[in-house]
Every structure is written in structure tokens, then in C-alpha cells.
DNA sequence: AGCACGCCGACT
DNA sequence: GTCGGCGTGCTC
């Protein structure tokens, strides 16, 4: 049972193959990519000179949620204008639609369809480069999404409507340039201004005003006042490519030997100009970013472009800053809320090859970087690379596919690689580059465990709730704070208590429209459903039997309260989705912590991601068990990733770090292995388990999720789809298994009943025909039940 | 997604 | 007798 890499699996009916057997309706046959004949030439080869020449046929992906490609005739006058990748206007149904010309169609569609002519070609030079067409086709096929929609979704808004090409004007853009290197103390009382300046410094000292005010609402005004104080300069600048600007900051001239070795290997790979995938496995603080930067520099020196994918860009201004300060306007930063016109501008600049480096989140995998030489996926294990609606793609996987199609070097970087990636290394598909030591030979933080069963937290003044901070943890905090250093407390749950339970009848307070417990938010004095947002006053008696309520389950609010109570002198803040209500607040809190105006930061994942706080020498995981209990085969892996990431926040400055992990499950594998800094051991063990149970990476999965208004109807549709799959199962020897239909782990959200079916098989190819059957059966599913197919699902919930 | 066709309730 | 509700079906 061998798992094949996404990219070397000949996906059924992919662009290289004839249309698949199971397909319904007439589709035009696919065109081989790569051969660049003009339409005239191709038409000539298809139909050699006959007296009455047949109509020239074009295969078009229509930007409507319909499957397949459509065949249109090409009017004489347009024959010479057509080139693959162009946006065209076609009659569709009663009206017209945007379409994408993909190439000539070999044969006409069925007898009973009336062929219509392409109405207009919307642009001279194709919006879509050839290699992207291939990638988009693959994505549509693999993730089962209409090709036209896939293509439209990959284009900037300006090009995704059926309008003529319009050149994005080389907009005059306002840049803010910092004139100081740090936030001066004089700004201490101007929080908003110091937040804006802090952001600016974090991204390398210079950034478009637009970008800053996206991250920090109202920053435009704040930067203007900073300008009047002489701390910032506002420049009007034509967005132009190829101009180096900004301060070139901190290009270290010395690399660690490991960084150097990785750099040499990548340079050699880039020189060959062929596809080569790498895993850059480097512990936190080992300087992976510098390796990416050097590789991108080398690609640039070869005249090649680079694509850098990062998780959640708003949270990693450091990385953006380093790219911007190293490459200046050679970089397009594709962040989540660029204005339409800016997005278009960047897109076209990349398409024309004027800007050669793109940095962005998962959707940037479709950025039209010309002459692509390098693709980097930073923190490749991060779950945010999987899109969870519409086209449910995994950007890391598509990055490898794209690299293969473009002949590029692909670097997947992580301290805790995804097991899929690791297995690809073991199988020899990816080459391994390792950075085992931190820069400046800083030691790894020591990690200790606190067994909560033995070290019972002692009651404080709060009488109604059991405390959660154990004596060793409190002692460590006091010691650290005593030295004037800072502490991070991590807990993956918001709110005060996560469960309200009746002492008499044992019924817990559930949301009326979701199958989850309501969380008590004491700061808001109400209970809140974290799935649908429903909130109501805190009931003081059980709604069923009027018995008294117990408050169980610990959230960040309670941890914060307990710290305040036990260490009254500490300056404590909480950082989670409830307290960081705006990007401004988030940045401000992080900045205040960085300025050491706070001693203790209590928070959820928000505190775990990539921040660099040199003053933090103690990191405490309040309860490692929360993410272990999730009913998902990746729960252990996620826990390991999370714990490692949090632990990596400790000891980033000159003082060594210490990590305390509280748990009720000291024997749980991820907890034990994190303590020992033993990723390899964990991975080995986990891989064996996955193999035994035939889970990824030793199998491919697809989930079919249903959501419906009526419980009965939803269940019956789920059973119906289950029957269809069962009837079409390949022989048992192929090893495809159906799990379910079953009620989803969260049985109801927003009043909608949820069911799911899970398919497991040795390869994606083994699953594809079944998915095609399911898809075909969807046409007679009542519209009250929504069904989605999720290929390579990221989570089972 | 649009935009039809299509077969059942309250209005001039 | 009509206007119109949005269920379902198709679009080269």
C-alpha cells in the first residue's frame, strides 16, 4: 500500500489523459498542454484542406458553476486572435458569460446541442499563463470543482468579470517610511500611533499606507500625525517594478554551517532549472527564513521568479518585512484585503514579469509569477494552507504540483513537518535539508512536565471553582517575574468555563441550535455558543430541573483571573479572539508586551504563532490535553505541532528559555515526545500507527459532508449516498473503505443536522470513480440538503 | 449562478 | 379568472 505523492499520481482524467470513463454528458476532449501551435495551425492539422472547411472549434471553461468544458465555434474574424489563456465573452444559456479559452476542441459536442460562436475576445495577451492553466485544471479535477469557477477564483477581481481588459494604472501609492529605528518613549501615551509605528518597523521600515491601515484600522491618520512629528515620512510613489528601495536591513554575512550547506544545495538545484522538491526541516530559531531569502536571491540572479507562501500573513509581519527589506519593490505582498485595483496591479506586474517575487497566503499559489524558479512554503504543516470552502485545495500540495509543472525548486519548510511531507522524504521523493542547531548556538528551551494528577493546584480565594495553576507552575512564574523576565501562558480555549453542568441532573447547558456546550464568558456576563455566536444571560439554575450549576472546563479568562489572584503584582493581559477584537488591539497588545509593559500574556493560538519576544523566558502550557481529545486522527500530530510552536516562544533572546507543560495525560505520546525534543521519535511512532490503521500518509481520504434542515431527510440522503458508494465499491483487494454514513462529531450547527461519509483508499485514483458516482447522484438530492465533497480533508470535524 | 419553465394560493 | 410563490433543470 504505497502512498504516492499528489503530483506523481496520474489523476484520472487529468490533462494528460482522455476524459474519464465515468463522465456523463458530452465534454470536449482535453488539449495536451505544452504544445504551442496557433489555432490556425491546429485547425489545419485536425481538418486538412477540405473544400467546405468545418467550423473551427474552441474548448472554453465557462465561469459559471457548471461542470466540464464547453465547445464553441470560432468566427472567422477571431481565428487569428485566439490564444490559450485568454478571457472571452460567450453566449451562455439565455445571456452571456465570461469564459476562458483553453485550446482547440477536437470534436464537436453531441448531436442535440446547438453550437454557438464565441462573441468576443476580451484581451490581446492571455491573462493566464500556460503553466497556470495546467495547475488550475489539475486543481479542478483533483478537488472536484468546476474549472471555470476555479479559474475565475484565481484571478484578481478586475479580471473575473466579463469586461474588457483594463490596464491597472500605475497608481500613485502612498508609502510610509519610518525615520527612526524604534518606537520612541515620547509616544508612550499615544497607543494608536505607537502601534502604527511598531507595525511599520516590524515590516521593514517602509510599507504602503494601504497595507498598514489594513492591519491597523485608522492608521492613515496616525501615520500622518507621526509624519508631523518627524518620525515617519509619507512618500508618494508610483508603483513601479524593479526599483530597489527601502533600507536594506540585516543581511547577515555569516551563516551557520547548516544554513550554508542548505543554501549551496538549493543554489545547485536552482542552477539545474529542473523540478526538485525539498523539505527544510529546521528547529525553531534555526534561521530557515535566511535560507529562503538566499534561495530567492539566487533565483533572482538567474532571472527567475519566486513564490513564497506563508500562513496567515497578518500574523507574520516579520517575514514580510525581511523579504521587503531585502528585495524592495521586487516583491509583491499579496495580503488578504488589498483593494481590487491594487490586487490587479500586483497581479499584472507579476504576469508581465516586472515583479519577480510574490509573498502571500495560500491563494498566492495561483499568482502568475513569470519564469518561476523557486517556490517556498513556510511552516508547511500549518492547517491554514487548506482552504475550507468552495475550492477546497491544499496550497502546499498544489505548490508541489506547480513546481513540477514549472520545473521549479520547491522548498517546504517547518520545524515540525506534516507527516505526509515526512513520508515523502522517506520514500525518496523529497530531499531533506536539516537545520538542527539554532543560530548563535542558542540552546533549545528545557521542557518539563507537570502531572496535574499529582501536583494538584491548591485552592486560593476563589471558592466556587477548582484552580488550574499548579504549585510548580506558580513557583516558576514567580521566579521568572522576579528576574524581571516575561511569561506566556497558553491555553487553547476561550472564555471562563467551557461547560456548565447541573449538579443534580447532570445535564450540561447546550446551545439551542448547535450540538455543543455553551461557554461562560464572565467578562461579558453571559454564555456564548462558539459555533453560531448565540449568547444569553448566565442561567443560575439548571433549565431542566432548577438544580444548581457547576462551572467546569477552563478557558483563558479563568486563567487570567487566577494569575491576577495568585500573583497580584504581575501585569497581566489576555490575548484571544475576545480581547483582540480588532487588528489594532491585537497589534497594540503584542507591542505592549514586546515593550515589556506587561509581564504575563495569557492566550490561545494567537500567542503561539511566530512572534519574537526576547524577554520571554518561561512558557507554560496550561493544559496540553485539550487538543488531544479531539476525535480526529491528526489530533496527536496537531498537539505536537502546537506544543512545539508554543515552546519555541521561550528563550528567543540571550537568556535561555524554559517550558512547563501541565497535563492530565503525562503518558500521551505527543506530550512525552515534545518534552524530549524528539520529533523524529514522535513521527516514527505516529507513522507506524497511521500505517496500521491505514490513515494518511498511507492512504488517501475524501469526506462527503451533508448538512440539512430536516434530520430525517438528511439522514436518508446520507444513507442513499452510502448505498451508492457501497454498490460501486471496487473489489476488496483494492483496499477502499467507506466509513459511515454517520452523524458528524458535531451533530448540529446553526440548527442544521450534519452527517458525514469518509472514504479511504490506497491512492486518490482509487477514490476518484466513487467520488464521480457521488457527484452524479447529487443532481437528485433535494436542495434542502447541502452536500460537499472534500478531497484530502484537513480535519474530520 | 442566472433564468427559465411549471404547477398551486389570494387578489382586482 | 390572473399575478406570483420559489422548486428543479439546463446552459456548448
TrEMBL record:
Annotated GO biological process: DNA recombination; DNA replication initiation; DNA replication, synthesis of primer; double-strand break repair
Swiss-Prot/TrEMBL keywords: ATP-binding, DNA replication, DNA-binding, Helicase, Hydrolase, Isomerase, Metal-binding, Nucleotide-binding, Primosome, Zinc
Region (Disordered): 1-39
Domain Helicase ATP-binding: 269-435
Binding site for Zn(2+) 1: 502, 505, 542, 545
Superkingdom assignment: Bacteria
Biased composition (Polar residues): 12-26
Domain Helicase C-terminal: 537-690
Binding sites annotated in the UniProt record for Zn(2+) 2: 511, 514, 529, 532
Assembly behavior: Component of the replication restart primosome.
Family that this chain belongs to: Belongs to the helicase family. PriA subfamily.
Described purpose of this protein according to its UniProt entry: Initiates the restart of stalled replication forks, which reloads the replicative helicase on sites other than the origin of replication. Recognizes and binds to abandoned replication forks and remodels them to uncover a helicase loading site. Promotes assembly of the primosome at these replication forks.
Name under which the protein is recorded: Replication restart protein PriA
The species this protein was found in: Myxococcus stipitatus (strain DSM 14675 / JCM 12634 / Mx s8)
Lineage summary: Bacteria, Pseudomonadati, Myxococcota, Myxococcia, Myxococcales
Gene: priA
